[in-house]
Amino acid sequence: MTADRGILTRRVLLQCAAAAGTMVLGAARGETALVGPENDPTLFAAGPVGSETGAWARLLLASLAGGMPSGGLLKLRYSGGQDGVTVANQFDARAMADGSQALLFPGCVALALMAGDGRAQFDFGHFLPLLALASTDVVMLRGGLNVPHRPGPVRLVCGTAPQPEHTALLALDLLQIDAVAVPHVADPLDAVRAGTVDAVFVRGSDVPGKVAALAEAGLEPAFTTGLVDARVAPQAARALRDVPDLLSLLAPAQRTEDTRVAAWRAVAAASALDLVLALPRLSTASSVANWRRACRETMGDDAIEREVYSRALLVLSEQEIAMAMQAMRADAPAQLTFRRWLADRLNWRPA
User: Fold this and answer.
1) 13 found inside a domain
2) Cα–Cα distance list, 303 to 35, 63, 129, 300, 311 (Å)
3) DSSP conformation class of 171
4) DSSP collapsed to 3 states, 180-203
5) Would you tell me how many other CB atoms lie within 10 Å of the CB of residue 42?
6) pLDDT band at residue 11 under the 50/70/90 scheme
7) Do the beta carbons of residue 63 and residue 9 sit within 8 Å?
8) Is the dihedral of CA 76, 92, 88, 320 positive or negative?
9) pLDDT of residue 16
């Protein structure tokens, strides 16, 4: 609903030639170069150039390169489809233990693992996350929650294959609100205005802006997934100040005894993690220190700070990153519940 905005960081970012292409940024010189030795530091973006992850990779590249030793050379490579599963597999299987390679991926890659998708062969236990951005996710609903008699089921923008929108559909099931999935909606805002959609799951960049547009079109913020934090995203905190989080709407017994709630927690955590930068778990101490310093300097870059603020995103601390990664690694009962829910609710089964 909102377009990604490009910015220039400390050094000039140059266009990438193709989705499978490679960029090398000479941070000290602000120029491109041919692909260097195999041990040059490389940032792998999980997705094509046009993906949101690819856009973030371009935004972060110069600042990350500036924090790297040996002249600051940092290659950028794009790989795989929009969900990032392909490159996550490749990174897990082939990433060098010397820490010369880092992966930038969206949290929603975890949904393929939860769903038992045969394509997903990676293990988050092999990743060491160093940087993460999270969004404040909210379900917008026509009439809000206080509608005693709805004329029909709530029509939610949602496909059948595992995706972040399942956070909203599963939440509506937990609240016993009759809902149906409406897939293949080109523009949710237009669909709301046309009256063909009653609910939208809002996530990612500029949640407050999207909420305002949908509210003007007739939807109300019904509940959030729980991450409303004013530290870096005060505009989100203001926009959603009086909106309850889902868990507060559930009975205590349901929160502890309904295995669907455990599945929902994992799906919601994966959906809220917009971006994660990780190294292989067994990377050398020196390489981890180099990347950690580069991440710290990047998040302190004025242009990056402005971009994160304008998108109403939250920069997680290392402790928060670890907690978020743990939350989206659903245990076996939660995974089984999610897979059964996908099969029963949406007739989806892994290939």
Assistant:
1) no
2) 27, 10, 23, 9, 12
3) H
4) EEECCCCCHHHHHHHCCCCEEEEC
5) 21
6) very low
7) yes
8) negative
9) 27
Count Cα atoms within 13 angstroms, Cβ side, for 2: 19
Look up residue 154 and give its DSSP letter. Answer: E
Model confidence over 57-99: pLDDT tens digits?
Answer: 999 998 898 888 766 788 898 877 767 888 899 899 888 878 7
CA distances from 259 to 61, 112, 262, 332, 335 (A): 41, 19, 5, 11, 9
Inside any domain, residue 42:
yes
Domain count across the chain:
2
| Angle at the Cα of 124 from the Cα atoms of 54 and 63, rounded to 5 degrees | 35
The total number of residues written for the chain in this structure: 351
Supply 188's token pair: 């949710």
Whether the per-residue pLDDT at 32 is higher than 50: the answer is: no
| Same domain for 283 and 217 | no
**Are 292 and 311 in the same domain?**
yes
Q: Please tell me the distance from the alpha carbon of residue 326 to that of residue 57, in angstroms, as a whole number.
A: 24
**Angle at alpha carbon of residue 204, lines to 203 and 208, rounded to 5°:** 70
Helices 52-66, 285-299: inter-axial angle, 10-degree rounding? 110
User: Residue type at 44?
Assistant: F
- Tell me: do 153 and 245 sit in the same domain: yes
